[in-house]
Design a protein that fits this description.
This protein is mostly helical. 68% of the residues lie in helices and 1% in strands.
Length: 418
């Protein structure tokens, strides 16, 4: 199938199914949040570092405008400017119908879960436009919805926002788009993505690099190349502004910064452990083992040390199946010249996250939503070469293992007092 044929494919059913997938994801994310006891007066929303080191208890206040720092957050500069104002509007509306504490949690949850669900719909749409049938997408969607990484996605934290926006940005890479529309989409989403988590700027840079490479190899360097040069200049300006912001804020901080607090240098100090994390980061986002419950560590419910010892028979079998299918689909994507750009992009983004979080961040699993969607994109795209019955078998055998892990995490929360 050529780019022209792909762009001319009937998009009506794909759009309808993508919207439906997003709505289903939104409902499920809300249910999953309830399963994990993300509600007022529970330990998840009252205490820091309960679930895999998440700061949900603090983030709720920032996402709903009840706490406004005097300076922009260095790592999440749009918390106050964008998400705080949206959350504040939702909180003010809900406070007319329920107590303030409940309104605060509900506003933060719905905003994060809506953005994350929109990202699911966008990812399904992108895969459909690239040739994956609706039947295959429908079979694979349940696997994605019960990803273990979605435990972090549904928390009132920035991870769900990042996952949704990163997923949606893939639509800016679809074939058949004019360069101006493509750059416009990537610019708008790039601002939101970078402002939500500053390190996400790397993903937009990788998108531009992949697009430039694709246009250089397959097309003449005309106006398209000039547009990309302009975009590259804009990225450099944003990077310079970010550097100035970091310098300004850092010069005013006497206490240890978020960078120094999270610095582990695992890749340098313990390369074997870093290699283990790298391999398991392909598995844990989809199917994690049963978590550890600790009483005196940074994360009360944790996957540290990152290992295979706590897999049950169900979740372990599901993890093996997932890795096999993921590897096969990755090969399919790289062999297809039209999909190769997505394969390169996902590979580079995955490699960046593995390296970065082996240098910074103690609770590695906490950051899996940054690339879990990318792994699912590879499976969505590569599944076109698999018969539908094999995908149905995959879902039938994988989903029970994923649910087993989600229930184990819920049990861990209950063990801490709920």
């Amino acid at each position: 199938m050529t780019d022209q044929e792909c762009s001319q494919a009937k998009s009506g059913p794909i759009v309808a199914f993508s919207i439906m997938a997003g709505l289903v994801a939104f409902v499920w994310f809300y249910i999953l949040g309830g399963i994990l006891l993300v509600s007022p007066d529970t330990i998840v929303t009252q205490k820091e570092d309960v679930l895999f080191g998440s700061d949900a208890a603090t983030r709720i206040n920032r996402l709903t405008g009840t706490y406004q720092p005097t300076l922009l957050a260095v790592s999440h500069p749009l918390y106050r400017i964008v998400w705080g104002h949206i959350g504040q509007a939702l909180r003010s509306t809900f406070e007319k119908m329920m107590p303030p504490k409940e309104a605060r949690v509900l506003a933060a949850r719905l905003m994060v879960e809506f953005v994350a669900a929109a990202g699911v719909g966008a990812l399904v749409f992108a895969a459909g436009r690239c040739g994956t049938s609706i039947l295959r997408l429908a079979i694979l969607l349940p696997i994605y919805l019960v990803f273990t990484a979605n435990v972090v996605v549904v928390l009132p934290d920035y991870f769900g926002l990042s996952a949704g926006l990163l997923s949606a940005s893939v639509c800016g890479l679809l074939p058949g788009m004019s360069s101006r529309v493509r750059l416009g989409v990537l610019f708008i989403l790039g601002v939101l993505i970078t402002g939500t988590t500053v390190t996400n700027a790397v993903f937009i840079v990788l998108c531009l690099i992949c697009l430039y490479w694709e246009s250089h190899v397959r097309k003449a360097l005309g106006r398209v190349l000039r547009d990309y040069r302009m975009a590259a200049g804009a990225v450099l300006l944003v990077a310079a502004a970010t550097a100035l912001l970091l310098w300004y804020c850092g010069s005013r901080m006497a206490a240890p910064t978020v960078v120094s607090k999270g610095l582990t240098l695992r890749l340098i100090r313990d390369p074997l452990s870093a290699a283990r994390y790298a391999g398991l980061s392909l598995v844990f986002p989809a199917v994690g083992p049963h978590p550890f419950v600790k009483q005196s560590e940074t994360s009360l419910i944790s996957y540290n040390p990152f290992g295979l010892g706590s897999f049950s028979l169900l979740s372990g079998s599901a993890g093996i199946l997932w890795v096999v299918v993921l590897g096969y689909c990755w090969v399919v994507v790289f062999r297809d010249s039209r999909l190769r750009m997505f394969g390169c992009l996902v590979s580079l983004w995955f490699a960046f996250n593995v390296v970065f979080h082996n240098l910074w961040a103690d609770e590695f699993f906490l950051f899996t939503p940054h690339w879990s969607w990318a792994l699912m994109l590879i499976v969505f795209l590569g599944s076109r070469k698999l018969p539908a019955w094999s995908l149905l078998a995959l879902a039938t055998l994988t989903v029970p293992g994923q649910i087993d892990t989600l229930l184990a995490i819920r049990s861990a929360v209950l063990a801490l007092g709920g």
